[in-house]
Amino acid sequence: MLYNAALVLEGGAMRGQYSTGITDAFLAHHIEFRSVIGVSAGALCGVQYVAKQYGRMVHVNTHYRKDKDYISFRHLFKHQDILNLDFLFQDHGWDWHNLDERAYQRSASNFTIVATQVSSGRTVTFEKPTGQELEDDLKASCSMPFIMEPQMTSKGACLDGGVADSIPYDVAQAQGYDKIVIVRTRPRDYRKKPSSRLVRQVYHRTFKDAPRFAEVGIQRPEMYNRQVEMVNKMTDQGKWFTFSPENMVKVGRLENNTDKLAELYHQGQQQAEELLPLLTDYLAK
Q1: What burial letters (b/e) apply to 65-80, b meaning 16+ CB within 10 Å?
Q2: Where are the beta strands (DSSP E) in 29-134?
Q3: If both were cysteines, with which of 91, 140, 163, 271 could 115 make a disulfide (CB 3.0 to 4.6 Å apart)?
Q4: Which is nearest to 35 in space by CA: 111, 138, 141?
Q5: Distance, CA of 219 to CA of 34 (rounded, Å)
Q6: Among the listed residues 92, 86, 31, the one whose alpha carbon sits nearest the alpha carbon of residue 64
Q7: If DSSP codes are grouped into helix, strand and coil, which group holds residue 103?
Q8: CB pairs under 8 A, 24+ apart, for 258-263?
Q9: Strand extents, DSSP E, 10-61
Q10: What is the spatial distance between Cα 33 and Cα 3, in angstroms, rounded to a whole number?
């Protein structure tokens, strides 16, 4: 069933396996949203969800995580990004699931990718991009500062959308949605610590030609914590519905233990199944 509501997917690199478990459970129960908004890993999760490709991302990250062409610190010696996002959009043989762009384009859901513009440090969005633009915008949203280079898009060079807008419920609100479902990748009570002196120095040094981006990056913890407070408040009031991983297996941003990645995915699935009656009640009101 297609609900007149927005689904917002937080980033978090490999923690996105939790989000994939949640959205795969939605697919299994034919739950769709008029708007799907993804940032960073949430954008990769969102595009497979809109294309209805059940299990695609968990297959990629459990079968190919240790492929050196995908993620490897050895890339640094070749002056390449540690995380090779091009890998996700190439064909790797019979066991690989290519992104089904035709199914994505046919979807009734409007898909929005969130990124951060390097020149201004501001949030930029890309609505239902296709073809090469879809690939470029997804890579931009997922490009983590310091370990990846900015990605060129129709709105200039961009990096990780989470830098300027970690939980982009404001995008859903701007689209006119009051009913918002949020999938977090951190526990409900998680808060970020202020940027250390070293982090501030690295931002200023790395982005000396983009000082506004550097300042936004440095202030990210404060922005993130304010967003968490708003999400928790609106959820407690019953205005929004939130999934967050509680007491689940912990994985690193570039986790290479595929058993842990698979477990986090299944835990996300299980939690979604348990909360499904509450979710459908919320969406039906």
Answers
A1: beeeebbbeebeeeee
A2: 32-39, 110-117, 123-127
A3: 140
A4: 111
A5: 32
A6: 92
A7: helix
A8: 258/61, 258/62, 258/63, 258/65, 258/66, 261/14, 261/17, 261/58, 261/61, 261/62, 261/65, 262/17, 262/58, 262/62
A9: 32-39
A10: 5
| Tens digits of pLDDT across the chain (285 residues) | 999 999 999 999 889 999 999 999 999 999 999 999 999 999 999 999 999 999 988 888 888 787 787 776 665 556 556 677 788 788 878 777 888 999 999 999 999 999 999 999 999 999 999 999 999 999 999 999 988 899 999 999 999 999 999 999 999 999 999 999 999 999 999 999 999 999 999 999 999 999 999 999 999 999 999 999 999 999 999 999 999 999 889 888 877 899 999 999 999 999 999 999 999 999 998
Range 59-67, long-range pairs (CB < 8 A, 24+ positions) = 59/97, 60/88, 60/97, 61/14, 61/17, 61/258, 61/261, 62/258, 62/261, 62/262, 62/265, 63/95, 63/258, 64/92, 65/255, 65/256, 65/258, 65/261, 66/256, 66/258
| List of residues 6+ apart from 210 with CB closer than 8 A | 118, 119, 121
Backbone angles phi, psi at 113, to 5 degrees: -105, 135
CB atoms within 10 A of CB 64: 17
Q: Measuring CA to CA, which residue among 253, 273, 241, 244 is closest to residue 169?
A: 241
Q: Which residue has the tokens 């830098």?
A: 163
CA separation for the pair 235, 193 (Å, rounded): 23
3-state secondary structure of 56: helix
Q: Name every residue whose Cβ is closer than 8 Å to that of residue 79 and which is 6 or more positions away in sequence.
A: none
Query: Are the C-beta atoms of residues 246 and 188 closer than 8 Å to each other?
Result: yes
| pTM given for the model | 0.94
Give me the numbers of helices (H) and strands (E) for the chain, helices first please: 10, 8
CA distance 104 to 107: 5
